[in-house]
Write a structure and sequence with these properties.
heterodimer, A: mainly alpha, MetI-like fold, 2 domains, 11 helices, B: 309 residues, mainly alpha, two-stranded antiparallel ribbon, 2 strands
Chain lengths: 282, 309
């Protein structure tokens, strides 16, 4: 056999082996979370808050953390949506392409999306001290909003850039202002915005390091913006650190819930994106 | 729609007025996101000033003495912990991730490619606390009961190796997704002409595809690295968290994010402790920023070079 054919065989084998190893370990990951979590998952887990002695193996569930996570991620995504659309529309429609603010803003978005979430946690905690807020649902929302803002901006910007140039041009030609152009292109990128919301939500609900100091943790239901709120990732973290086996099993069950939530979000992103693509003017 | 009379823009139509107000509001939003980045950097620098003024920056970075109660705030073992666990993760993750991405994109059938890509895409969204949990269930016992005994070493399993393994599994989907995206961008004509000249598939990959894709692949690896540097929860759960420079992969490490997560928010009584933790956050941020900005510059120059050659 020629050398090049041997090389081909060797590398094909290596590649096949790498793929197998990667997919096997990722499937093992999901598998072990399901395998360990499913037996501990019961109705009480998703319908009850922790009762007294929950962390010693007594009754209760993690409904408070599930609700807390949903409220927190929902609030954070709402704040960052309200900010990100003006930002993206400004850099795409108002400011000119090479201007300092335009370049700086894109750069900031890029850099912020690489900043570790623990840094946002530290910074958010400092902001809360300045504003005089204790660790609370609101504090967590503000912090996580900063964390997902660059994610959201990137996702919206990606679709905003794809709007065909003829569209704003024809709106301009009708004598409309840039603000009208923005309204038209927003309608055009609505499916993209929905996808951006879902992606940010998935990111927000899974992050633990940013809420560690800012949202606090409690066994109560999250009923007020100014009270501490439990979140699923932290609930998993605290349960796995318990020495009681039953509580550890519940950590696996909570992880299963969190993974299921996030996977169903990503799946629905795909479905929505493929369905709504058809309705957009090309 | 006529404007209400109290608005002092007599010459403006309602449409123009709306346009100007929208422009101003949007400008404020755009300034705001720049302000966030700047204020994080300034805030961390200012808040950590007491400690780096008193102990000097090189003194903090190079000292190994971590003894907050007696004023020892040496960061060296934490920095080394971050660097080593990131390096280990990348060495373990990058080669298989790149090879597997090439396999999916260049060798596998379209069906397998789509399925693989979807799976990887879904897995990239799994939160780090789940990876950490999996590390505790699977990786730590594996290291403790099988890998370390094979070398005749006793370990708790909460060590550099576990940390690197968990991080590597975490960044594999990140690297793979981006490499696949890069490969997508390479025109098929190039592959076809190479194959038509009688090259094998691997030769085509090696000489044609890789030559064009390497800047993109390097940035994919860099993205994985930057994710690993800042990862907190997964690392916190499996690294062992002992502030010392490890002498083997079976010894515990204490990366910077774990230090912050473990101690921030409860250090009120010790002088300078708060400031020292702010300094560790600043160091972490600086590592990530230098890396990302370097990558930014590299991508610009590399793309330019690719176009001209």
């Amino acid at each position: 056999m020629k050398g090049r054919i041997i090389e081909e065989k060797i590398f094909t084998l290596l590649m096949a082996f790498s793929s197998l190893a990667i997919f096997a370990s990722l499937i093992l990951l999901i598998g072990s979370v399901i395998f360990k979590g499913a037996p501990a998952l019961d109705l009480a887990m998703v319908t009850e808050a922790p009762s007294g002695g929950f962390y010693l193996g007594k009754k209760g569930g993690v409904l408070n953390a599930i609700l807390g996570s949903f409220f927190l991620a929902g609030g954070a995504v709402f704040i960052s949506l309200v900010l990100s659309i003006p930002i993206v529309m400004y850099i795409n429609h108002y400011s000119s392409k090479g201007s300092l603010l335009n370049t700086a803003t894109r750069f900031s978005i890029d850099v912020l999306s690489g900043v570790p979430s623990i840094i946002f946690g530290v910074f958010g905690f400092s902001i809360m001290i300045i504003l005089g807020i204790k660790a609370s649902l609101l504090g967590g929302m503000i912090t996580v909003a900063m964390l997902v803002l660059p994610v959201m901006c990137r996702a919206v910007d990606e679709v905003a850039r794809l709007v065909p140039e003829e569209l704003p041009e024809s709106v301009h030609a009708l004598g409309a202002t840039r603000y009208d152009v923005i309204k038209v292109s927003l309608r055009q990128i609505l499916p993209g915005i929905l996808t951006a919301i879902m992606i940010s939500f998935g990111r927000a609900i899974g992050d633990a390091a940013s809420v560690l100091f800012t949202a606090g943790f409690t066994d109560e239901m999250p009923l007020s913006l100014l009270q501490p709120a439990a979140t699923l990732p932290l609930s998993i973290f605290f349960q796995i650190n318990s020495p009681v086996a039953e509580v550890q099993n519940r950590a696996y069950a909570s992880a299963l819930i969190l993974t299921a939530v996030i996977l169903s979000i990503s799946l629905s992103v795909r479905i929505i994106a493929s369905k709504m693509k058809k309705k957009v003017v090309k | 729609m006529p404007l209400p009379s109290f608005i002092p823009f007599k010459g403006l139509s309602a449409g123009k007025f709306k346009n100007i107000s929208a422009r101003t509001l949007f400008l404020i939003a755009a300034l705001f996101i720049n302000f966030i980045l700047l204020s994080i950097i300034i805030w961390l620098t200012v808040k950590s000033a007491p400690v780096w003024v008193e102990k000097s920056i090189p003194g903090l970075l190079l000292s190994q003495v971590w003894f907050p109660a007696r004023g020892g705030f040496g960061m060296f073992s934490f920095i080394i912990g971050t660097v080593l666990s990131t390096l280990l993760a990348v060495i373990l993750a990058a080669p298989p991730a790149i090879l597997s991405a090439i396999y999916l994109h260049e060798y596998a059938s379209k069906k397998i490619m789509t399925a693989g890509r979807t799976l990887i895409d879904l897995l990239a969204g799994i939160p780090s606390v789940v990876f950490g949990l999996w590390g505790i269930i699977t990786v730590v016992p594996l290291v403790r009961n099988h890998i370390a005994p094979a070398f005749g070493i006793n370990t708790t399993g909460y060590c550099l190796l576990s940390c690197g393994l968990v991080l590597s599994i975490m960044i594999v989907p990140v690297i793979m997704l981006m490499v696949i995206e890069v490969l997508d961008g390479i025109p098929n004509e190039l592959r076809e002409s190479s194959l038509a000249l009688g090259a094998t598939r691997w030769q085509t990959v090696k000489h044609v595809v890789m030559r064009m894709a390497y800047p993109g692949i390097l940035s994919a690896v860099a993205l994985g690295i930057s994710r690993a540097i800042g990862e907190t929860m997964a690392v916190l759960m499996v690294a062992g968290n002992v502030p010392a420079v490890p002498s083997s992969v079976f010894e515990p490490v204490y990366p910077l994010p774990a230090l912050i997560a473990n101690n921030y928010g409860e250090m009120l009584s010790i002088p300078l402790y708060d400031s020292a933790l702010m300094f560790s956050a600043l160091v972490l941020l600086a590592m990530v920023l230098v890396f990302n900005i370097g990558l930014h510059i590299f991508k610009k120059t590399a793309r330019y070079g690719g176009q001209t050659s």
